[in-house]
Design goal:
- It contains 12 helices and 14 strands.
- The protein has 351 residues and is an alpha/beta fold.
- It has a single domain, classed as NAD(P)-binding Rossmann-like Domain (Rossmann fold), CATH 3.40.50.
- Helix 6 runs parallel beside helix 7, helix 8 crosses helix 12 and helix 10 crosses helix 12.
- The longest helix is centred in the first third of the chain and has 21 residues.
- The two termini are 36 Å apart.
- Bound molecules: nicotinamide-adenine-dinucleotide.
- Nicotinamide-adenine-dinucleotide binds next to helix 1, strand 2, helix 6, strand 5 and strand 7.
């Protein structure tokens, strides 16, 4: 049986990916410190799967940190002893707030970079050499390009982005040091939003959200008074920033596609954009949300934020051709599914 270790699997993208993996017959072990997530997310993944006992037996959850060498070794050893050797790792665990990373870069280097060093070290010791890493489109940095290709220059503009870039580079060096062994996929996500249609799993930020969609949800839900829009003077068609919003289920499916691709290929390293290829301004995102959900979102335009860029849209042709993957969900579905999650869980998993 194919056994995947999912780091950070209780988080937003991780929980949706765990659902996809379980549905596709994988056995999974999750390690999560729950620093930015709840144990309920994976309980709810099992609820979506109708409490089917087969699935209960196919998931094992470890509460702990990826910097804990002993725990990681224990997970690999336990799996081996139970004849369920871990074949690959999907590595979501990481801190992701741009603003927090600007205030506290050491925390980000320590958690994201040192955490990944520890993880890959333990993987090597345990002869597991396939990893899918959660990278980010934020590493493309400041340019005026309409769409970003994987080969475009990288220039992260904040410490969070720098940790992602450094990890990609680090994984490249691991790959080149031993060409016969490692299979690596760096997946650069654009802007994952939305939630599973069941409204049982979704994005449940701890504290004030950093990303736009949970902020819109909280304004719509009356938790926040208004939506702050950072800058109305960006060089874009309506002056607000343009992003490539992608449904979180499409992102989750992208991991399945990458896993299948790596398992069927020779050792290699690939770097892939996961986006829809469509740019949407903040104002257009708000308008779509308002239209499909019939809710008014009060806006407040404020100054630009440090570390932001005008436009970040994926050229996703490589993902389509190499992974045979297609984003399926429209912006309207992202807004409907995301709001349905919020409406059913006003305080996220704390309800
Ligand atoms: N959501 C996005 O917009 C986005 C965009 C690009 C890249 N990413 C990256 O994708 C990954 C997943 O993002 P997400 O939105 O699901 O975030 P998330 O915060 O919901 O999930 C991350 C998970 O990792 C856990 N975690 C963090 N540090 C850990 C550690 N040291 N040991 C064990 N567990 C730890 C958290 O508790 C959380 O469950 C992150 O690495 C993030 O940087 C996210």
């Amino acid at each position: 049986m194919n056994h995947i270790l999912v780091t950070g699997g209780a988080g937003f993208i991780g929980s949706h990916t765990c659902l996809v993996l379980l549905k596709n017959g994988y056995f999974i072990s999750v390690i999560d410190s729950f620093i930015n997530s709840s144990k309920k997310s994976l309980e709810n993944v099992l609820k979506i799967l109708k409490k089917n006992h087969i699935f209960h037996e196919k998931i094992k959850i470890y509460e702990g940190d990826i910097r804990d060498t002993e725990l990681l070794n224990k997970i690999f050893k336990y799996s081996r002893e139970n004849k369920l050797e871990i074949s690959s790792v999907i590595h979501f665990a990481g801190l992701k707030s741009v603003s927090e990373s600007i205030q506290n870069p050491i925390k980000y280097w320590e958690n994201n970079v040192a955490g990944t060093l520890n993880l890959t070290n333990v993987m090597e010791e345990n002869n597991c050499k396939t990893i899918i890493f959660s990278s980010s489109a934020t590493i493309y940095g400041l340019t005026n390009k309409t769409k970003f290709k994987e080969t475009d220059p990288i220039s992260p503009v904040n410490p969070y982005g720098t940790t992602k870039f450094v990890i990609e580079k680090f994984l490249e060096t691991i790959y080149s040091s031993n060409l016969e062994n490692w299979r690596i996929a760096n997946l650069r996500y654009f802007n994952p939003i939305g939630a599973h249609k069941s409204a049982l799993i979704g994005e449940s930020p701890i504290g004030l959200p950093n990303n736009i969609f949970p902020l819109i949800n909280q304004v719509a839900g009356g938790i926040l008074k208004e939506l702050k829009i950072y800058g109305k003077d960006w060089p874009t068609y309506d002056g607000t920033g343009i992003r490539d919003y992608i449904h979180v289920m499409d992102v989750a499916e992208g991991h399945l596609a990458a896993l299948k691709f790596l398992s069927n290929s020779k050792p290699k390293i690939i770097t892939i954009n996961l986006g829809t290829g469509k740019g949407t301004s903040v104002l257009d995102l708000v308008k779509t949300f308002e239209k499909v959900n019939k809710i008014k979102i009060p806006l407040n335009f404020v100054d630009r934020r440090e570390g932001d860029v005008a436009r970040l849209v994926a050229d996703n042709s490589l993902a389509k051709s190499l992974l045979n993957w297609q984003p399926k969900m429209k912006l309207s579905e992202m807004c409907l599914d995301g709001w349905r999650w919020q409406l059913n869980n006003m305080n996220g998993y704390n309800d």
